[in-house]
Design a protein that fits this description.
By secondary structure, the chain is mainly beta. It has one helix and four strands, in the order E-E-E-E-H.
Length: 56
């Protein structure tokens, strides 16, 4: 099983809540936008803390 970690990045702008989403990219996701957007995150192994991976 692979571990991944991410941070929910958001801001309030002119009274509206905005959330940062990322598109996976690459040839597989090239023309696929619907359902592809996700929170930015990355994998980490047992030698790294989840918070350090999320901040990276």
């Amino acid at each position: 099983m692979k571990n991944s970690a991410g941070l929910l990045m958001y801001r309030r702008h002119r009274g509206a809540l905005q959330v940062l989403l990322a598109h996976p990219g690459g040839p597989f996701w090239r023309a696929k936008d619907e359902g592809a957007w996700t929170l930015p995150k990355g994998e980490y192994d047992d030698l790294e803390h989840a918070l350090a991976a999320a901040q990276r």
